[in-house]
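QUALITY CONTROL LOG
STEP: pairwise intake check
CHECKER ROLE: data steward
CRITERIA: each record must contain a sequence immediately followed by its structure tokens, with no blank fields

ENTRY 1 OF 2
RESULT FIELD BELOW
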Amino acid sequence: MLYEPLGGALLYAANGHVARTPLTRQRAEPLLHRLADGRPAPVGALLAALPPADRAEARRLLETLESFRALTRE
């Protein structure tokens, strides 16, 4: 997965797909770095590490990455 800041948002890409999130790089990076380590984690635990105001958008980011087949559920 790749990501790049764009204005006040973040573009992210995986498997040939690109999407945009209003999360800034600083707000999204902890989640993205945690995903990059490859260890399984419950969605609730991933979201709990973020400020409450960012959780809904972070969930959408995870759902989008799953639709890109960049993540899988167990």
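ENTRY 2 OF 2
RESULT FIELD BELOW
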Amino acid sequence: MNHCQESSKSGVTLSIGHAIYPEDGQNISELLLISDKRMYQIKSNTVEVSPS
């Protein structure tokens, strides 16, 4: 049974935020909060490009 359709396309994106201990936070909660904020900041400034 073949489930592939030649006309369908799919894609995958990756988003990463970063935080550095101890400059950005003193515990895991603070570091996760900072990295999450940075990830969303970067995503809001990114233009998606479609593959040719």
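INTAKE CHECK: passed for both entries
DESCRIPTIVE NOTE, ENTRY 2: Residues 28-44 form the longest helix (17 residues).
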